[in-house]
Design a protein that fits this description.
Blueprint lengths: L3 H31 L1 H4 L2 H4 L2 E9 L2 H6 L3 H4 L1 E7 L5 E4 L5 H47 L1
Antiparallel strand pairs: 1-2, 2-3
Length: 141
């Protein structure tokens, strides 16, 4: 029974230590929810106008604008009610999506062409071997 006690203490210690960061995160969330006007983006609660279309973030924006980090794309908007200018993340332009689609199609076609070339080459090698085998059998008669 003596070896079980240290394990039990270690497990309990890990559980208690694991609960502290979770409690701290919950308290931080409560503090953030106390001031919803500052934490909520204006485009979530107001009408907005797109000032700059969705596009890839520059290297400087990746470091300074937190909205750039999830997707690498950002859209600049102006909120109608408050007049605030903010960045909106999670946007993908149709041009970027189309480019990605055609890259995929091109890659698939390239793989298909390489596979077809390999199949044809292998088929020719096997045909030559079969013809050579038949020729040798004919000569031996």
């Amino acid at each position: 029974m003596a070896p079980a006690r240290p394990r039990l203490c270690a497990v309990l210690g890990l559980l208690l230590c694991g609960l502290r960061p979770a409690a701290a995160m919950a308290a931080a969330d409560e503090r953030r929810s106390e001031s919803p006007a500052a934490a909520t983006a204006c485009w979530r609660v107001e009408d907005f106008v797109v000032a700059q279309e969705c596009g890839p973030c520059s290297g400087f924006q990746m470091k300074t604008v937190p909205e750039c980090s999830p997707t690498g794309f950002v859209e600049r908007i102006n909120c109608a009610g408050s007049g605030r200018a903010e960045f909106k993340s999670s946007c993908r332009s149709a041009r970027v999506e189309a480019r990605g689609f055609w890259r995929f199609v091109g890659a698939a076609l390239a793989v298909a062409a390489v596979a077809a070339a390999l199949v044809l080459g292998r088929q020719r090698v096997l045909d030559r071997r079969a013809l050579e085998k038949v020729r040798k059998q004919m000569e031996s008669i």
